Amino acid sequence: MTHTTINLNSPLTIKGITIKNRVAKGALSEGMATLGKGRVTPQLLRMYRAWGKGELAFCITGNVMVDVNAKNEPGNTVIEDERDLVKLKEWANLGKMYNMVQIVQLSHPGKQCLKGLNKETVAPSAIGFGAELAPLFGTPRALTEAEILRLIQRFGESARICKKAGFEGVQLHGAHGYLISQFLSPLHNQRSDQWGGSLENRMRFVLACYHEVRRQTGDAFIVGIKLNSADFQKGGFDETEAVEVFKALDQAGIDFIEISGGTYEAGAMVGMIKKESTKKREAYFIEFAEKIRSEVKTVLMVSGGFRTRQGMDEALQSGACDLIGVARPLIVDPNTPAQLLAGHNAKHALKPILSGIDRIDRAAGTEMLWYGAQMKVLGKGQQPNPHLSPIKVLVLYSLQNIRKVVQGRIRVRA
Question: What is the pLDDT at residue 65?
Fold first, then answer.
């Protein structure tokens, strides 16, 4: 099915809410909240204001944690109660000021937490990382069933607070090896109860989280999810299973699905894995989007790899997706949406960010840290530097992170 009249400038309506164009920001963890409690800062708001000014239509926030004791990095924003409601309302109002629909990405990292950051890490099963990443991430404790049920409630409670603050919706982070993704993977979920084993059991957690969010927010609130098309790990979550999970969520009533792929151990989400056949078409996951399009009715968003206005229009006109996800170009230049909508390509051609330290580069660590540093520049109200040295970023991050981990743990306990 083709939609030749649709292009990047075309509006889209979800749940009665009009999205002014098809440019959507994919989530990137900002690490700009207060240490310990993860509260909203002026720097965070300043950055989202810059994106609003740049004509961004659909903005998915960075990784927002549903549990202050389960953060994937220092400086994560946390929404687990209403203590920060005033600032959250200010954040939500920024979107309304610029007609930018804002969707809060809700997440629990499971075992993907740096050693020493949290008191402990939990996951569906007590399975650690492979040899390359084991020095950075500890072996988790397996969740009890009571804890699983409480986590499901936490996703619902965080979503309710987001709605109360004025955000238009939430997105469950079910990709990139975080907790929901861990439940879906037969490699990481080796439970023998109702939460593990068959695909029906492994998808029980994500469906329960969706239904709890819907119960606490109502039918008029946008609820989406980010899902892997595959984990790209031997014995892990594959495309065949992904199709079934996409179909189950579609039938449950999910409002949009963002298609992604990979984990920390197989970094497809930042372009570390990319088929030769997709290079000319830019988007990393466009082939899977074409496959799933005939299986689901919900809005589909494809993120990763898009760089040119032509490539974006072609993806929309093919009918494979309804929203074009971009993230890194917006960090280097927050006016990228306005440039694309005017018919131009992104101002800065992006290339892989490599430090030369193989283990970190293969896990996309350098890439994520470099863009994180650029977001902090945006948070200061300054213009990012496309020529920033990756080595300089790594050194500064290492020095700062030691201090943050120590201070963050002290403040959580206080």
Answer: 97
> Which contacts qualify for 409-414: CB closer than 8 Å, 24 or more apart?
409/36, 409/116, 409/117, 409/118, 409/119, 410/36, 411/35, 411/36, 411/37, 412/36, 412/37, 412/68, 412/69, 412/119, 414/36
Given a contact cutoff of 8 angstroms between Cβ atoms, the answer to whether 164 and 210 are in contact is no
Residue 389's CB is within 10 A of a number of other CB atoms, namely: 12
* Res 401 pLDDT > 90: no
Looking at residue 370, its pLDDT comes to 84
Q: CA 132 to CA 143: how far, in whole Å?
A: 24
- Tokens representing residue 100 in the block: 């930018």
Please tell me the distance from the alpha carbon of residue 188 to that of residue 173, in angstroms, as a whole number.
16
Tokens of 236: 């892990």
Q: Buried (b) or exposed (e) across 248-272, using 16+ Cβ within 10 A?
A: bbbeeebbbbbbbbbbbbbbbbbbb
Q: Tell me the Ramachandran region of residue 166: left when phi exceeds 0, alpha when psi lies from -120 to 50, beta otherwise.
A: left
Could you tell me which residues come within 8 angstroms of residue 395 by beta carbon, excluding any fewer than 6 positions away?
Answer: none
pLDDT of residue 145: 98
Task: Find, among 186, 113, 107, 194, the residue nearest to 151 by Cα.
Answer: 107
Label residue 384 left, alpha or beta by phi (over 0 means left) and psi (-120 to 50 means alpha).
beta
**Beta pairing partners, 26:** none
For position 414, what pLDDT does the model report? Answer: 45
pLDDT surpasses 70 at 268:
no
pLDDT confidence band for 272 (50 / 70 / 90) = very low
Q: CB-side exposure of 136: number of CA atoms within 13 Å?
A: 18
Residue with tokens 């399009």: 293
pTM of model > 0.85? yes
Helices (H) and strands (E) in the chain, counts: 14, 14
The secondary structure of residue 114, as a DSSP letter, is: B
pLDDT for residue 134: 81
In angstroms, rounded to a whole number, what is the distance separating the alpha carbons of residues 301 and 215?
Answer: 24
Q: Where are the alpha helices (DSSP H) in 166-238?
A: 179-184, 199-202, 204-217
